[in-house]
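Dear colleague,

Thank you for sharing your sequence with our group. We've completed the structure prediction you requested, and as agreed, I am returning the results in plain text so they can be pasted directly into your records. Please verify that the sequence below matches your submission; if there's any discrepancy, let me know and we will rerun it promptly.
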Amino acid sequence: MKSPSLIPAVILALGLALGGYFIGNTYLKGKQFDRIVSVKGLSEREVPADLAVWPINIVLTGNDLQTLRREIEKQNQQVHDFFRAQGFDATEVSAGVVNISDAQANIYNTNAQYSAYRYLAKSELTVRTSDIPKLQKALNASLQLLSEGILFASKNEWQPVEYIFTGLNTLKPEMIEEATMNAREVAAKFARDSGSEVGPIQTANQGLFSINSLDANTPQIKKVRVVSTINYQLID
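Please find the predicted structure tokens below.
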């Protein structure tokens, strides 16, 4: 007959054994979830720009403000007529401010008395259109304004025309799907090399979309790019 004092000791031993088993089993299962592979998936598209913005300056000089004002109005009208002849409507060409500087009022210009003209005026216009071929045709034809005595130039020398792609939202779902598929293919190769299989996604970072010109000479073609970072669980 077993001693009553042994029963609590047996129960305690069984409890410790079972507790050790469950703790060990939980630890092993937890270690399985530690086996992950972090991969990046890429998706790229080349797309045409769908909006162009062309900021323009008309530059004039003179010594009489009233005469200069009339010349500004005349040349502004000539430039508007040019764009209408090129097929642009009133909503695509907008007038900006007119800035006039006085050489004699510039205290830093010590040679003002030798300047042939006292006033320098810059009249701003902006062409904004979704018709890229029409704009490029107008760019080529704009040289005729010089022959009419109009000093006409892009306001931004470093970027005469800004080409923009506005259709990113329509591309996002397809590109995210492609980047995810690309990432899973990379993860599958890692898994095969380690004798495992790709399990479910643990964490995913979509990444930021970037839109850049294809190159410096073709800013009207844009490259849309996204890189997603995804962590997959590896299973045996």
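Summary note from our side: The two ends are 50 Å apart (CA to CA).

Kind regards,
the structure core
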